[in-house]
Design goal:
Elements (H helix, E strand, L loop, with lengths): L1 H4 L8 H15 L1 H11 L6 H23 L5 E3 L3 H10 L6 H21 L1 H7 L3 H22 L3 E4 L3 E4 L10 H22 L5 H20 L12 H11 L3 H4 L5 H7 L1 H33 L12 H18 L4 E3 L3 H6 L5 H16 L1 H5 L3 H14 L12 H17 L2 H18 L8 H16 L2
Antiparallel strand pairs: 1-4, 2-3
Length: about 450
């Protein structure tokens, strides 16, 4: 094990990798329930079928990135991309569930081609240095924002967009709604204190401690407290997966006759081209951003500031996306929550192996995954977001041509709920600033290509 994963060389142990893998699993296990619930809204596939499809694709993707790239990262159906699949492709365009899977299959196959030819590595090298420096911080803000929303500490507001949830027990708030918020805040503080005292496994202990506190306070102080856990047989979900999701991309996906009858062939071609491009660009830059951000957080970048084994990591992502299409789920991508495991000390692919094992177990023990309260995992995401802000010190804020692209990169990720949009605004602003300040020669050819692709995506697919 040490020889294959190079544990000693990376300054880690099996115990550390185990705890990191468990931490990553806890931080991202919500995707099993969220993705299943989202796809079930289409009425064309059941919750159980999508739960299994999501879990299988997560296992395959996570194992691949661990074995091929030896990186402590995990993969699953990406948030944002799954919403685009369901709410835009299915509900918006009117494509069927199976038709939309064809777009995911195209996405995966294109990525395999780009990776094998080395073009994805060239695309990464074309990202301006100012944007690269800001990516980890942007992802950090994004992760923290996800955590704040998951526990409803930050809620939507009709006048301001977002607002702090109420703690006022004398007003509209109740202890049942305030208690999870208190647990999250206390858990973040507890993780920080343990980290300050150099206690190994601070994030994991924070999740476990937060979960225990949630249930103690719930049962003792909240009348009628009952965790939302179901104990359905996993065999039913596996049966539904086999009949409703697995292989649907081949058996029904390429039959667009119903869509053509309503919208016409020309409209179909336009939808396929623009949607496939949107999936490809978002997936590509989400993966690139996450790989760079997570590795930067763990001081794992090479001497040249590059992600180790990047081509292999991207190949794992491409194969996982293709596998996801076959299983019946949306684009599989590297999860930003992997940074929680990296913060816990994960440094090799062994972390990924442990995370994959937990996802495999979760297929048969779905109630166990549901027992992890959102207020506990939210604390971990918020804390990891804090840690990832350290890179802002490397940005030259006094240089406008670096400050503006860097700020837009890190700000637009949480504001648009999308990593690739942050990179898009960073690159677009970088090119325009160089163009109109007379320094256009400093812009690489590859940067111009990405610039053009992002403009097309924003104006024609978003």
């Amino acid at each position: 094990m040490d020889k294959f994963f190079k544990l000693k060389e990376n300054g880690t142990t099996v115990k550390t990798e185990f705890m990191a893998g468990l931490t990553t699993f806890f931080a991202m296990v919500y995707i099993l329930m969220v993705n299943a619930g989202m796809f079930a809204e289409t009425g064309q596939v059941s919750y159980g079928a999508m739960y299994i499809a999501t879990a299988i694709s997560a296992v395959v993707g996570t194992v691949l990135i661990g074995l091929l790239a030896n990186l402590p990262l995990a993969q699953a159906s990406g948030m944002g991309l799954n919403a685009f699949f369901v709410y835009t492709c299915c509900f918006g365009f009117g494509l069927s569930y199976a038709n939309s899977l064809v777009l995911i299959l195209i996405d995966g196959l294109v990525f395999v081609l780009l990776t094998v030819t080395g073009l994805r590595k060239m695309i990464f090298d074309a990202i301006p240095n100012a944007v690269r420096k800001a990516i980890p911080a942007g992802i950090g803000l994004f992760i923290a924002f996800i955590g704040l929303q998951n526990v409803d500490l930050v809620i939507s507001d009709p006048s301001t967009g977002v607002a702090l949830n109420s703690f006022n027990l004398l007003g509209s708030a109740t202890w049942a709604s305030v208690m999870p918020l208190v647990v999250t805040v206390l858990s973040v503080i507890a993780i920080a204190v343990m980290a300050k005292k150099n206690l190994r496994g601070a994030v994991l202990w924070g999740i476990i401690g937060g979960g225990v506190l949630y249930y103690i306070l719930g049962f003792l102080t909240v009348p009628g407290f009952a965790p939302n856990v179901s104990f359905d047989s996993p065999l039913v979900a596996f049966k539904e997966f086999g009949t409703q999701a697995f292989g649907k991309v081949f058996t029904e996906g390429f039959d667009f006759s119903a869509y053509v009858a309503t919208h016409g062939e020309a409209n179909l071609i336009l939808v396929i081209i623009t949607s496939a491009l949107a999936f490809c660009l978002v997936d590509m830059f989400d993966t690139i951003g996450t790989l760079y951000g997570a590795c930067a957080r763990g001081n794992m970048l090479t001497e040249k500031g590059e992600v180790p084994n990047m081509d292999r990591a991207m190949l794992a992502d491409a194969i996982a996306t293709t596998t996801g299409a076959v299983c019946g789920t949306s684009t599989v991508t590297t999860f930003v929550e992997s940074s929680a495991g990296v913060a816990e000390g994960g440094r090799t692919g062994l972390t990924s192996m442990f995370t994959a094992i937990f996802f495999f177990i979760a297929m048969f023990l779905s109630p166990v995954a549901q027992l992890i309260p959102g207020c506990a995992t939210a604390a971990a995401l918020i804390y990891v977001g804090i840690l990832m802000m350290a890179c802002v010190k490397d940005i030259d804020w006094h240089s406008i041509d670096e400050a503006v692209p860097a700020f837009l990169t890190l700000a637009m990720m949480p504001f648009t709920y999308n990593i690739s949009y942050g990179i898009a605004f960073g690159i677009i602003s970088y090119v325009f600033i160089k163009l109109f300040s007379g320094k256009i020669k400093e812009t690489k050819v590859g940067t111009w290509v990405i610039f053009a692709l992002f403009l097309f995506m924003l104006f024609f697919t978003h």
